[in-house]
Write a structure and sequence with these properties.
The complex is a heterodimer of chains A (about 180) and B (about 190). Chain A is mostly helical and about 180 residues long. Chain A has one domain. The longest helix of chain A is centred in the first third of the chain and has 36 residues. The relative contact order of chain A is 0.08. Chain B has about 190 residues and is an all-alpha fold. Chain B has one domain. Chain B is about 75% helix and about 0% strand. Chain B contains nine helices and no strands. In chain B, helix 5 runs antiparallel to helix 6 and helix 6 packs antiparallel against helix 7. Chain B is globular. The chains are: A mainly alpha (about 180), B mainly alpha (about 190). Chains A and B meet through helix 1, helix 2, helix 5, helix 6 and helix 7 of A and helix 1, helix 2, helix 6, helix 7 and helix 8 of B.
Chain lengths: ~180, ~190
């Protein structure tokens, strides 16, 4: 556990250091290039801001109205059988479908159960280790006019399921 | 997708709240959701600027090229059909490296370019080839070395240790990617 937290802590500083050293050695004007790239960061956030406003409203309303609890209460007996935490079920369900909705759901879960609680960690790891599967498949196959995606959806959803189950197990070991 | 999902969320939650007399909660949720978006966006703004800037430096060095070289044995296993096609090899390995570095904006155009190149040699234009299928599965697996968005979310929520999830994310991602690839190889062998 000590080692995991050490490795997690050093990952980001090490990569930043490595990139800057690479830049200096290869005589890149590092700060000019950095500024140039950093501008893109602004437009990424600005462009998703309206989407996030809409989806945070929807997800917070789902929580406040009691719908999310209603769904969780229905699922709990089933999920208890396989020892799966029902609190993160909303995230597992929305994650493959919509990226920005899953950000809203993840924030909602982390806020409700505590960002550093086991549930909060699980939500974080699921967010970091899975992708908007269905959207990605649609973008890639429709870009070249493919109609038959064969086994791709099944294989990707299996991968997501494995990622989610692993996230749950790893976080239980971590805490 | 959101044109369907969003109204469903709004209609269900708002009408359920009104009928169950939960209006106070709903009203405060409307404003707290806006507050939360603002808070998150401020943190995201910083994280995204920092990361995009750093990646721009990486893109201007041989960093990416070196990474694609390291990937070569893996690429041989994943895409046995395309390894002799240099242009395609570059597009696919650049797509994977961009994903690993978290350059979502760069990864997608590269991936779509590779799809286009593969489609040229595809005998049946309506059906995915094995390599196309593998590329899509890899792109749904989110292989990312620093999960920047999650770290930003965690720090905007006041986590004691926002980056603690990095190694757990690696473990979960690797398991998920391996399962995806094994499933893909299995389905291909089965002739699906």
């Amino acid at each position: 556990m000590e080692f995991i937290s050490f490795l997690s802590g050093i990952a980001m500083p090490a990569i930043i250091l490595l990139i800057v050293i690479f830049g200096v050695i290869e005589k890149v004007k590092v700060f000019d290039v950095f500024l140039d790239g950093a501008k893109d960061g602004i437009s990424i956030v600005v462009s998703i801001f309206p989407t996030l406003v809409g989806l945070f409203l929807a997800v917070y309303a789902l929580r406040a109205s009691g719908i999310i609890d209603l769904i969780i209460n229905c699922l709990t007996p089933l999920l208890e059988l396989i020892n799966f935490p029902s609190e993160i079920m909303p995230l597992a369900l929305i994650r493959p479908i919509s990226g920005s909705s899953s950000i809203a759901v993840a924030v909602d879960i982390m806020k409700n159960f505590g960002v550093d609680s086991t549930i909060g960690l699980m939500a974080s790891v699921i967010m970091g280790s899975t992708e908007t599967t269905i959207y990605t498949i649609a973008v890639y196959s429709s870009s070249v006019g493919i109609k038959n995606t064969r086994f791709v959806l099944v294989a990707s959803l299996l991968a997501d399921l494995a990622g989610i189950v692993t996230s749950v197990i790893v976080c239980r070991l971590l805490v | 997708m959101l044109n369907i999902l969003w109204p469903i969320f709004i209609i269900i939650s708002f009408s359920y709240a009104i009928f169950s007399g939960n209006l106070d909660n709903l009203n405060s949720a409307i404003f707290s959701s806006l507050e939360e978006v603002l808070k998150l966006s401020m943190t995201l703004l910083g994280t995204m600027c920092l990361w995009s800037g750093l990646m721009q430096i990486a893109n201007n060095t041989s960093f990416v090229k070196n990474l694609t070289k390291i990937l070569r044995p893996l690429m041989k296993f994943l895409f046995p059909d395309i390894i002799e096609n240099d242009k395609l090899y570059n597009e696919i390995s650049m797509n994977i490296v961009a994903n690993i570095l978290g350059l979502g904006n760069a990864a997608t155009p590269l991936g779509l370019k590779a799809m286009k190149t593969m489609q040229k040699d595809n005998p049946n234009k309506k059906v995915l080839t094995n390599s196309m299928a593998t590329l899509i599965v890899l792109n749904t697996a989110s292989i990312q070395i620093i999960p920047t968005t999650v770290i930003a979310i965690r720090s905007s929520l006041g986590s004691q240790n926002p980056t603690i999830i990095i190694v757990p994310v690696w473990i979960a991602t690797i398991v998920s990617a391996v399962v995806g690839i094994l499933a893909t190889k299995f389905f291909i062998k089965m002739g699906k």
